[in-house]
Amino acid sequence: MMKTPFSCVNISIYFSIAMFHAIPWHPIYLVSTSLFQFSFYEKFPEKAGIWQNGNELFCMHLQTAGGNAMATIKDIAELAGVSSATVSKALNNQPHVSPDTKAKILEIAARLGYKKGTSAGHRGAEKTRRFLGLIVPSLDNPLFGSIAYHVDSAAARYGFLTVPRNTDRDPEKEADSLRELQQLGAEGIIIFAPSEQTGTVIEEIGYPPERIVALDQPIPGLSTHVIVSDNAKGTQEACEHLISLGHERIALITGPATRRCNRERLDAFVRVLRQHDIPIDPELIRESTFGFDGGYHFAWELFQYKAPPTAIFAFNDLMAFGAMNALFEMGLRVPEDVSVVGFDDIPIARFYNPQLTTVRQAYQDMSVIAVERIAAVTQPNMAGITKGRGHSTLATRLIIRESTGPCSTSCQKAPVSGISLVK
């Protein structure tokens, strides 16, 4: 049984090494290696020169026209002393920009030779420059490496490159990524877990909503393609599985309440336990940030409680791994003493020791459908493309492995005194 500390970067390293020894050219190896690079250089920026230069060269390849690098919205904003949002409004002839500021921005744009990206795809550029943008909230989670791989594979079939952007769950970084991709001329943008301000930014920059695909949750106030997982069904299956094993004191480690998927899963959890007349202890529900550290930290907290849980349900696999590591350090066994369930089924879940029971999301299908939705707009005459804008809900599946087992004889069956139901 694994006893050593296990971080997100370690996951990428271990998985990369394993894939390299098996099939060094395999795309998953390349993706996981890239994830390690991104995580490493973000943590140690002084080492980032080579990677940053390479990234700038790649971006320059996308921006070049006749060999001259084009200015960006951010360049103009810095020279004008205004925000990127103000520059975007001025260039798109939108209101709420003073005449003097607008004139200054337009003068700087002309001086720099700025050319507005035409996201409608009529740039007259060479075919190799056609690309899709992919915006994800984190590069520490291997889940997004899998999504990037599947998006890139599907995009290549339609002649697209894929340009990923990481927001670190920062709405301002997300906004900058949207503006940059629009300026570079992305033919479509796939965005995972859009923020509350995503719709406002898209309207500001004048990007066509029909070329946007939102994954995991809709974009507030904007009608776009939306592809989500059946969070309620996945949560129900996980809870029913634990209850069937005799568990009643089930702890939850959730993600941020701002994410729709977390609210749906929490609602389903409460509903299932009430259906089984199982009391819900608010002390056993902890909100985290979807990271390994959150699962580790809250598992330690949960087991300081006078009536600790007999099972932990984490709303993603990284938090489940963190919880398991904490349990090992406490001298507890999984699943003999405590059962653990995750959500996502990232590739490392089946290699962990013990192998993780988790709810599998159909991220390959989600990625392929997202690309097809954009291709249906940019290449409407291509046969075999599913057309139409709308909301797609993909089925989840509980994958039962080694981290769950029967509740031991020490499990508490009676409600704990003073506990009230979550409303």
Structure description:
It is a single chain. The protein is of the alpha/beta class. Among the domains are: 126-223 and 363-394, Rossmann fold, CATH 3.40.50; 231-361, Response regulator (Rossmann fold, 3-Layer(aba) Sandwich). Helices cover 44% and strands 13% of the residues. It is built from 14 helices and twelve strands. It has helices at residues 8-22, 27-43, 49-63, 73-80, 84-91, 99-112, 142-157, 171-184, 198-205, 231-244, 260-275, 292-302, 317-329, 363-378; strands at residues 131-136, 161-166, 188-192, 212-215, 225-229, 250-254, 285-287, 311-314, 339-344, 357-360, 391-394, 397-399. The strands form two sheets. A six-stranded parallel β-sheet has the order 2-1-3-4-5-11, with helices on both faces. A six-stranded mixed β-sheet has the order 7-6-8-9-10-12, sandwiched between helices. β8 (311-314), α13 and β9 (339-344) form a beta-alpha-beta unit. The longest helix is centred in the first third of the chain and has 17 residues, at 27-43. The two termini are 39 Å apart. Residues 1-69, 118-128 and 412-423 have low confidence and may be disordered.
How would you summarize the topology of this molecule?
Blueprint: H1 8-22, H2 27-43, H3 49-63, H4 73-80, H5 84-91, H6 99-112, E1 131-136, H7 142-157, E2 161-166, H8 171-184, E3 188-192, H9 198-205, E4 212-215, E5 225-229, H10 231-244, E6 250-254, H11 260-275, E7 285-287, H12 292-302, E8 311-314, H13 317-329, E9 339-344, E10 357-360, H14 363-378, E11 391-394, E12 397-399
Parallel strand pairs: 1-2, 1-3, 3-4, 4-5, 5-11, 6-7, 6-8, 8-9, 9-10
Antiparallel strand pairs: 10-12
